[in-house]
């Protein structure tokens, strides 16, 4: 299953590369918006492009401020200032994606991805 992601400016390039290497589409924020765009504009652009937003910005993990209903999904990666865990987190997340058979699985959901778990929330 192939998914489309809009990669926030705070996401390291290695994450976008891992997604692409696994067959997913990764659209970089810098190709569509100014780097310091407000969060609401970033989420709106992801919706416009029909992509799930992929971010390290903890604000997007707040389901009240940024409800995922009506968008292609939000993936909030939690590395807690430990970039050395990125390969482990990405391996877990990519395995999780491979287990999905519905191309609309991400739609309307918030995924909080941590080293040992992936929490799924819906508004």
Element pattern in H and E:
EHEHEEHEE
Structural class: alpha/beta
Indicate the overall shape.
Answer: globular
Indicate the radius of gyration in whole angstroms.
Answer: 13 Å
Overall description:
With 123 residues, the chain is of the alpha/beta class. It has one domain. It is 26% helix and 21% strand. The chain contains three helices and six strands, in the order E-H-E-H-E-E-H-E-E. The chain has helices at residues 13-21, 39-48, 86-98, and strands at residues 4-7, 25-28, 52-55, 74-77, 109-113, 118-122. It has a six-stranded mixed β-sheet, with helices on both faces. The relative contact order is 0.20. The model has no long low-confidence stretch (mean pLDDT 95).
Report a brief summary of the structure.
With 123 residues, the protein is α/β, with parallel strands linked by helices. The protein is 26% helix and 21% strand. It has helices at 13-21, 39-48, 86-98; strands spanning 4-7, 25-28, 52-55, 74-77, 109-113, 118-122.
List the helices and strands and how they pair.
Elements (H helix, E strand, L loop, with lengths): L3 E4 L5 H9 L3 E4 L10 H10 L3 E4 L18 E4 L8 H13 L10 E5 L4 E5 L1
Parallel strand pairs: 1-2, 1-3, 3-4, 4-5
Antiparallel strand pairs: 5-6
Comma- or semicolon-separated keywords:
123 residues, 3 helices, alpha/beta, six-stranded mixed sheet, 6 strands
């Amino acid at each position: 299953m192939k998914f489309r992601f809009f990669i926030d400016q705070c996401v390291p390039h290695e994450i976008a590369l891992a997604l692409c290497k696994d067959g997913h589409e990764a659209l970089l924020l810098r190709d569509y918006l100014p780097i310091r765009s407000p969060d609401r504009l970033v989420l709106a652009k992801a919706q416009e492009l029909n992509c799930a937003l992929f971010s390290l910005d903890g604000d997007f993990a707040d389901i009240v401020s940024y409800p995922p209903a009506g968008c292609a999904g939000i993936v909030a990666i939690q590395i807690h200032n430990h970039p050395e865990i990125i390969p482990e987190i990405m391996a877990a997340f990519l395995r999780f994606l491979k287990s999905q058979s519905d191309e609309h699985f991400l739609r309307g959901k918030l995924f909080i991805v941590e080293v040992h778990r992936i929490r799924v929330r819906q508004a």
